[in-house]
Amino acid sequence: MSKKLFIETLGCAMNSRDTEHMIAELTEKEGYETTDDFVEADLILINTCSVRERPVHKLFSELGGFNKKKKPSAKIGVCGCTASHLGEEILKRAPYVSFVLGARNVSKITEVLHKDKAVEIDINYDESEFAFNDFRSSPYKAYINISIGCDKSCTFCIVPKTRGDEISIPADLIIKEVQKVVNSGVKEVFLLGQNVNNYGRRFSAEQEKINFTQLLRRLSTIEGLERIRFTSPHPFHMDDEFIEEFASNPKICKSMHMPLQSGSTKVLKEMKRGYTREWFLNRVEKLKTMCPDVSISTDIIVAFPGESDEDFADTIDLMKQVRFNQIFSFKYSPRPETEAESFTNTVDDEVASQRLSQLQSLNNEILDELNAKSLGKVYRVYFEELNRDYFVSGRSDNNIVIKVKGSDDLLGQFRDVKITSIGRTILTGEIVA
Ligand code: SAH
Ligand code: F3S
User: Fold this and answer.
1) Radius of gyration of the CA atoms of the chain, in A
2) pTM of this prediction exceeds 0.90
3) Closest residue CA from atom 1 of ligand 1
4) Domain annotation for the chain: domains and CATH numbers
5) Per-residue b or e along 54-80, where b marks 16 or more CB atoms closer than 10 Å to that residue's CB
6) Which ligand number lies closest to the CA of residue 166?
7) 348-352, 410-414, 423-427 — which is least confidently predicted?
8) Quick check: 243 pLDDT over 80?
9) Cβ < 6 Å from ligand 1: which residues?
10) Quick one: which ligand is closest to 194's CA?
């Protein structure tokens, strides 16, 4: 009987791809097969996120839970960003953990498995050209890494300390990977990096230097590839050439993630984001003018140290101007090894909660208004998931989640769908063509 692997994934899309890489290595080289039940697992992995504080606390209680109910012989490994930043401390606080594997050391998974109490967390380790084995959780769309690490130093963010410096993956490797998934039937790729539109700044070896816009152009010539998505672009690097390519290239999905963080230029400066409120608004205007159907999503942090009522009002005002289609909003959470950790002008937690809920209710109002306009409209949907009650769901080009009654015959297919009813996060429709 083959050994069983249970793996829990927290955090961002990059972590999801790292999980696929670990599954690939462990199934191909070590004979594991995955299970959804940790109680029967021989290896339990938790792929962690450290962007905010809460998940870190949760980690140790969760590890305790695994330890209590796991098979006596089962190993537990802690992977991902919290592994990178806590390292040895994880073994001290949870001595039953067998190994700690950082977010920048995924390719060493089969190595640490055989070393007792291994801690591999080198953030300078370069695995940008590592040839991972193949595993993909969806046959319809594929995550494709285009860079590792992050070269920015946003004062609130721990990622550069857990994922290290930014290194781009050579374009020929990316193109080969996309070609491979397209040959296997995938029609949509999702390009991943912390700053995708900073692509091409640094490679680990001498390479033909192309930028993100050029990479998009090249990828879009691949026959059989129908849709290209990416996350996250950085507002600072959204030059005209990039926006023009985005708007005019029919294979690039018309949904843009523009992580704002704050609508106040003063706060943006304290965050070291590298752009102003005016630059952000200017980019949105250019995008909307060139691409009227674009949907724009964002990330916002409320109550960053020093955020005054006026600064927060600037964020609210910007939201009203832009009318984002989706907002991921967070209370500022101080993180170790970041510059902002030492800022003393913190915002009272009650104020922070009040700001977050004001922002979220405005967002819901805007969303309801935007969604109401979709009623009766027709969208081209790429179906990728079978839901309960004979529904199948997928996304429109501009990233709206849409479901229709149907069977698995629809999976991996494109259809025109007319919207017949509206929900806040998912629309329902019927196929018209
Ligand atoms: N490079 C990615 C950012 C990854 S972190 C990007 O630009 O999208 C994802 C999001 O988490 C950030 O955009 C930010 O909104 C949020 N975040 C990061 N650090 C945080 C902190 N210390 N407190 C609260 N939210 C944070
Ligand atoms: Fe973090 Fe800023 Fe990079 S948010 S991931 S340091 S772009």
Assistant:
1) 22
2) yes
3) 194
4) 3-120 (3.40.50.12160), 136-253 (3.30.750.210), 257-273+285-372 (3.30.750.200), 378-431 (2.40.50.140)
5) ebbeebeebbeebeeebeeebbbbbbb
6) 2
7) 423-427
8) yes
9) 51-52, 150, 156-157, 159, 194-195, 232, 234, 259, 261, 299, 301, 330, 332-333, 335
10) 1
